[in-house]
Write a structure and sequence with these properties.
binds ligand BES; 4-stranded antiparallel sheet; 456 residues; Alpha-Beta Plaits; Aminopeptidase; alpha+beta; binds manganese (II) ion; globular; 6-stranded mixed sheet
Length: 456
């Protein structure tokens, strides 16, 4: 049975890749209104794909935002385990577009890699799961019930998914949820992710004069909002890289000795490799923690974007009327996005000068998650990864966020098995995002093995 499914996947490789290119051609950028039609098309493509491999009850279900695609296959019977499979069909924006070597929505193979927005994060991961289920089902070996939950708002904080999950509790009952939206640590370093950070995302606007002014006529008498914003931002960290928001570290759970030992094993501590992947001249951060710990186990505050004044060609001597920063915090247990937002607000109240006005707008939130490693899904996947890569997976706490993990834990008591076949150098959210095709093919095989292990 197992070999027939693996053989089916190998026989159909070329077709799988062509279909992946099709979904990658739909620009499902969830944060931009101009792509709303594409979001609908992305949901339809996904639903049709589920139907075509023989899934039942396939529906595009409305939410307060972009729709969810659901489908299932429950013919394994009541005594068989039920595996939910989560995915997202939305992607991040493509800017700065001029840095892309090929069109982000015309997937191009160069060497071992496929370049396109959403290739690694995470359309290929969704399709890997679909192809694995297809391969097992078409060769007559599926003995596990499957439920698909594929959303369109992951990249904007899964805002409406929580409500959806609450409303469809019964439909979403499962023994665990396979979530391939995390990743591997290297092409030969399979991983099961045991923790994710949470996120609080806000926009800070600083207002000065009622319009842009002549900087010669008014510079020196009016506080420049760009400068005021820079001063506020500079005060958000101390010299040692610690965040200064009042109470920020109060609830941060200490990293245990056992967790520290796990962090120590991770390839993410390799300074040279980090500099190579990022292109940065040197590392930065809390010196008393290892790099992998700073990413997986410590909270941060990042400036995601800045805007003010004249940024066009040449020069304009202007004192801008306003400035804006996008600010987000990555959170660890037991911080919450709501409290962090209040802490940021408290910092601004305390630190903002009287010479400007300011406004803080919350954009989206996600909770930090730790997942149980003793569930049947983790066992089945660990065994599968060992078979395919010839080595046991790392158990790693990672720095990214995925809203659904806490939502499933809280509202339906379903734990997530976090994995994925994206690599640290894939350039997720960056220009020239890519997918390492040999790793992707192994990923498909590893899910086939996982399903086989669950059937035994
Ligand atoms: N696939 C990532 C999450 C991820 C990244 C997990 C790295 C593990 C390691 C996901 O698609 C993502 O980027 N999520 C957003 C969510 C946010 C907007 C709430 C993120 O982390 O920025
Ligand atoms: Mn992402």
């Amino acid at each position: 049975m197992l070999n027939n499914a693996l053989e089916y996947a190998r026989q159909n490789q070329a077709g799988f890749l062509e279909q992946l290119k099709e979904i990658l051609a739909i620009p499902t950028i969830s944060t931009l209104d101009e792509n709303n039609q594409d979001m609908q098309r992305g949901a339809e493509w996904t639903a049709n794909k589920l139907k075509s491999i023989g899934m039942n009850h396939v529906q595009i279900m409305p939410t307060g935002g972009h729709p969810v695609v659901y489908g299932d296959w429950l013919n394994a019977g009541k005594d068989a385990p039920t595996m939910m499979i989560y995915g997202h069909y939305d992607v991040q924006p493509v800017d700065p577009i001029e840095l892309w070597k090929s069109d982000p929505f015309q997937a191009e193979v160069r060497g071992d890699n496929l370049y396109a927005r959403g290739s690694s994060d995470m359309k290929a991961q969704v399709l890997a799961s679909i192809y694995a289920v297809e391969s097992v089902l078409k060769t007559g070996g599926l003995k596990v019930n499957i439920k698909w939950l594929i959303e369109g708002e992951e990249e904007i904080g899964s805002e409406h998914l929580g409500e959806f999950i609450k409303k469809h509790k019964g439909m979403l009952k499962a023994d665990f949820c396979l979530n391939p939206d995390a990743g591997m640590l290297g092409p030969n370093e399979p991983a099961i992710v045991t923790g994710l950070r949470g996120l609080m995302y806000a926009e800070l606007r600083v207002y000065g004069p009622s319009k842009d002014l002549h900087s010669g006529g008014f510079g020196g008498t009016i506080h420049n909002p760009a400068q005021a914003l820079a001063e506020l931002i500079a005060g958000m960290h101390d010299k040692k890289g610690k965040v200064t928001l009042p109470g920020f570290y109060d609830k941060v759970r200490k990293i245990s000795a056992k967790e520290r030992a796990e962090f120590k094993r991770l390839p993410g501590n390799n300074r040279k490799e980090l500099l190579k992947i990022t292109g940065a001249p040197e590392l930065w951060g809390e010196p008393q923690f290892m790099p992998a710990e700073r990413v997986g186990g410590r909270p941060t505050l990042e400036i995601n974007g800045l805007l003010s004044g004249f940024t066009g060609q040449g020069s304009k001597t202007v004192l801008p009327a306003w400035s804006m920063a996008k600010i987000s915090c990555r959170l660890v247990p037991d911080q919450t996005p709501e409290e962090t937002f209040k802490q940021l607000k408290a910092y601004l109240k305390k630190s903002a000068p009287k010479t400007v006005k300011w406004e803080l707008i919350g954009l989206h939130n996600a909770g930090a998650a730790l997942t149980e490693v003793d569930n049947i899904g983790v066992q089945a996947l660990a065994k599968a990864q060992e078979k395919v890569w010839g080595r046991k997976p790392y158990f790693a706490r990672e720095g990214g966020s995925i809203g659904v993990v806490v939502q499933l834990q809280e509202y339906v008591g379903v734990d997530s098995v976090l994995c994925g076949f994206g690599l640290p150098d894939d350039g997720a959210h960056s220009p020239n995002e890519k997918l390492h095709l040999p790793t992707w093919r192994k990923g498909i095989e590893s899910i086939i093995h996982m399903i086989h292990n669950l059937s035994a």
